[in-house]
Amino acid sequence: MSQIIEALFLGLIEGLTEFLPVSSTGHLLLVGHFLGFESTGKTFEVLIQLGAILAILSVYFNKLWSIAKALPYDPMARHFVIGVLVAFLPAAVIGALLHGFIKDVLFDPWIVCMTLIVGGFVLMAIDRMPLEATKTDATRFPLSMYFKIGLIQCAAMVPGVSRSGATIVGAMLMGASKRAAAEFSFFLAMPTMAGAFAYDLLKNYKFLSANDAVLIGAGFVSAFVAALVVVKLFLDYVSRHGFTPFAYWRIIVGAAGLAALIVYG
Question: Could you list the residue ranges that cross the membrane (predicted)?
Fold first, then answer.
């Protein structure tokens, strides 16, 4: 039973942090390390992301459905869908090529702590830059911009960097408003996380037991509920307050993690 409680708790962390610029994978790896939570092939941390994906789908279902219906006759709808696919492509290729290296080498709590701290200072610097927002609609970015955001997203394959943080910062540096950057980060998360889920499941399903399935299911449910709340609130919060609170959070968690690793191992 204790494992199920841990899985629910980790799922809650995943849902709360997936769409914030704080690195959900980094938080999962750190908390899991200190809880002594070991998942088969480290699949739990990847597979419970499906709950967060479904949370986005439920929140944006009407908008996504209207875009899907408009595809046959609306060039802008096709432009947006192509843009998302173009942005997804770099992560799909690099993620497949480096899948083993990422899990075996980069899934390390020391790396997580250091990237959390560095990323925190980057967020603070971005928040203080006098950036001009010339693009306020996430569905109308140029295709070249979509591709560049996709390239930047690949930095988040290092745990602790944050997929949402990388894509939001990248979009803002290219002229997107905070709200548009965050919204596109949500849209790009769907194929990226779905792809990671499918690839990881294909690689590891033979090694998963019934107990693994129960733990993943528990984490999935709590991730869905938590992500549902975050997706609804995050856009408005960021539009008003920026990213500095998340920057401080990253630095505090990273520093505390380093201290705990030094003391407890």
Answer: 7-35, 47-68, 80-101, 107-126, 184-202, 214-235, 247-264
CA-to-CA distance for 29 and 26, rounded, in angstroms? 5
pLDDT, tens digit, 9 for 90 and up, residues 140-189:
999 999 999 999 999 999 999 999 999 999 999 999 998 899 889 989 99
Give whole-number Cα distances, 145 to 127, 181, 189, 219, 245, in Å.
20, 11, 16, 34, 27
Q: pTM, whole model, 2 decimals?
A: 0.87
**DSSP class of residue 104?**
I
Report whether 19 contacts 231 (CB < 8 A).
Answer: yes
CA 20 from centre of chain: 8
